[in-house]
Amino acid sequence: MPNLTPTRATPRQATSAAAYTADPPAPDDPLLSFAPVPHTAPRRNSITPDLQRAFIAHLATTGIVTAAARHIGKSVEALYKLRQRGGSDGFRAAWDAAIDRGVSRLEAGALARAIEGEQRMVVSAGKILGTEVRHNDALVMFFLRGRMRDRYGNGGLVPGHPDYEALKARLRAEWQAEEADRRASPESHEANLKFFHELKERWRREWEREQALNEAKARVLGDPPVDPDIA
After folding, report:
1. How far apart (Å, rounded) are the C-alpha atoms in residues 231 and 176?
2. Residue 145 in 3-state DSSP?
3. 140 CB contacts (<8 Å, ≥6 apart)?
4. Which of 10, 174, 219, 222 is the most buried (most CB within 10 A)?
5. pTM of the model
6. Count of beta carbons in the 10 Å neighbourhood of residue 47
7. Is 65 exposed, middle or buried (0-12, 13-18, 19+ CB in 10 A)?
């Protein structure tokens, strides 16, 4: 994980990802050795190879696309447009690698807070009595579930896990058996319908959980603009 430096005057205030910066990549860092997007007829406002490398370096440092774009004085839309141009394979790969470093920085900051806790003021009757270290239990469980899924990840019952797939197969077999009974005995239709809806609701919750994780990842990586052709 990258070395993190608090940017707040008071270290205890450095509790968000934006409160930290990582060490910028060295000039000889392989991240910056990509082949830049060529300009056959460069203009005054072209994003030159030097600007492309400055953007990638700042993106690796902050993990924020908008901040890196602002650092080189270009719009996010122009950079996404450059990313889609022919000959941009190297630039695009470096962009993705820089984002990965930004995610590692985010994880490092969160992990540090989960382990070390945060200094919070103790206030009573409007007076500050001192400070104490508080730990975020939800953040701790997030890391335990992510890094020790079999032990803490809801019993390890996630798609692909043998126990999950076995349970899925058993529930499907039960539903099929219930369906066969329903056809043989129409009066049991209501009970079978209830069972089917419960099963459907179970899979819906699992799907929503996966969607929430994907949306969280998209927010960290930076969603592309709606219309990347806007200059």
Report:
1. 56
2. helix
3. 114
4. 222
5. 0.48
6. 23
7. buried
Euclidean distance between the first and the last CA atom of the chain, given in angstroms as a whole number: 35
- Give bridge partners of residue 118 from the DSSP assignment: 134
Q: Encode pLDDT of 104-133 as tens digits.
A: 777 777 777 778 887 888 888 888 888 888
* pLDDT (0 to 100) of residue 52: 95
Q: Strands 127-134 and 118-124: what pairing? A: antiparallel
- The single residue listed with the structure tokens 């890094």 is 147
Q: Two tokens at 120?
A: 């919070």
Q: Which two tokens stand for residue 37?
A: 């997007």
- Report how far residue 146's alpha carbon sits from residue 110's, in angstroms, rounded to the nearest whole number: 13
The Cα 183–Cα 206 span in angstroms is 29
Q: Where are the alpha helices (DSSP H) in the chain?
A: 49-62, 65-71, 76-83, 89-116, 137-147, 149-152, 162-184, 189-221
Spatial separation of the C-alpha atoms in residues 62 and 19, rounded to whole Å: 10
Which residue, chain included where needed, has tokens 């000959």? 87
Helix (H) or strand (E) holding 130: strand 127-134
